[in-house]
Amino acid sequence: MSIDRPRTRPANPCFSSGPCAKRPGWTLDALSGALLGRSHRSADGSTRLREVIDRSRDLLGLPADWRLGIVPASDTGAVEMAIWSLLGPRPVDVLSFESFTAAWANDVVTQLRLPDARVLQADYGTLPDLAAIDWSHDVVFAWNGTTSGVRMPGADAIPPTHDGLAICDATSAAFAMELPWDRLDVVTWSWQKVLGGEAAHGMLALSPRAVERLEREPPPRPLPKLFRLTGPGPGGATRLLEGIFEGDTINTPSMLCVEDALDGLRWAERIGGLSALIARSRANLEAVERWEAASDWASFLAADPATRSSTSICLRLKADRFPNPQAAARHMVELLRSEAVAFDVGSYRDAPAGLRLWGGATVETLDVEAVLPWFDWAAELTKARGSAP
Fold this sequence. Notes:
seven-stranded mixed sheet, alpha/beta, three-stranded antiparallel sheet
């Protein structure tokens, strides 16, 4: 059986969910001003780090009384710092509905061994019962499930006032989705997602309530230096380490990565700010929605449009079309890679067999529209060969 290759190819075949595609027009020249061979603690180095903080704050509309800092180890490091430093004084609810949220649940239950912890669990493609959350507890959740393509439905999922802290992993949502800052207390993200920055650095945003918790009720456990957000203050009181939120990072950041993060932030400002970023990501999802509606072999992992991600767009292979979905997905991913039309589009290793297409703001909708016929081509070729390489 002869299956014609599509004629149009994506201009940029990078659809990885992290590190993600660079902004349109990016070249190595964007890093030419990097502060190399200089200390990040120098006046110039500190200025660059504060610029990342200030531009991020302005672009996201962070409330003026929130702290925002650069932390090590990407979003993972930021989440770990938050839960190890803040959890303990109250019972905890953890929403577990994909790989990373399952990791946070494991930390809370197995590593921290908090006695009053509940894990509210759901299968890939769905959210836990949000009505079951007790907001008098501290609540740990992701705004967007990077490995499942499922997102929180909106601000109304969180009550305007709540006694516990709302601790939100927003790494694949920040800069692509509206975040209700007035209903959150801790928000984390990384540089390598929606703005396409390089890896290894995370951002940690703390509300006044979170800062108050840190200072009033220090963590009842020893913490490694990388996790410490507080230190001794006047009279033996516990005080927030303000330097973290002024560019004095705990570890040594890569100034190349800092320059790249600044480039992404400046690009976002040039194209119209947060609303433009959200619109670009939304357009990418809409392109896939139009295609999926006519597909006979793929469907969204997130069946409910209200909880469907516009960044990590996850597709399931229909079982009636592929007797061995795992082998079929592997074959399709390899075909797309070998044709250099889509790199790194396999579903996450723990997720159901399928494809995962990054639709963040750095991805051009024209490239999304161009790659979808290649998905159909790879599917037809795989079916013709019996789902196996």
